[in-house]
Amino acid sequence: MRGLASGVLALEAIVLVLVVPVAVVIFDVNVVVGVTAGVVLIALCIAAIGGLGRGWGYTLGWVVQALAVALGFVVPAMFVLGGIFALLYYYALRLARDVEAAKAAREADLPPDPA
Per-domain residue ranges for the chain? Predict the structure, then answer.
């Protein structure tokens, strides 16, 4: 389950790196505020990736998704991009859960290994 979720969060961190200059240059966000907010969101993405193995990273991932959508109030394109990443994150978690359930069902149906 971690693989897909970490991939989405890593790509989102890259997009957030690219959003900072857009916010500062095009939308006249204060440089300190824009860079600080960007660094915090990127750090949250990285922390969420690290926390996926411990369980709390999934919740932090949802917090990142909400903050990315809320960033749309500053950079309107982030309403769309944040929404897309939130949907990708949801789909990644759902798909991974379905794959793990199918794998567990398949393993339950297999006879014990005679080795």
Answer: 2-100
Instruction: Please say whether the dihedral angle defined by the alpha carbons of residues 10, 12, 15 and 16, taken in this order, is positive or negative.
Output: negative
Q: Do 39 and 12 meet the contact criterion of CB atoms below 8 Å apart?
A: no
pLDDT tens for the chain, 115 residues long, are 688 999 999 999 999 999 999 999 999 999 999 999 999 999 999 999 999 999 999 999 999 999 999 999 999 999 999 999 999 999 999 998 898 888 888 888 877 666 6
CB 92 within 8 A of CB 8: yes
Other Cβ atoms closer than 10 A to 58: 16
Whole-model pTM? 0.86
Q: What is the DSSP letter of 59?
A: H
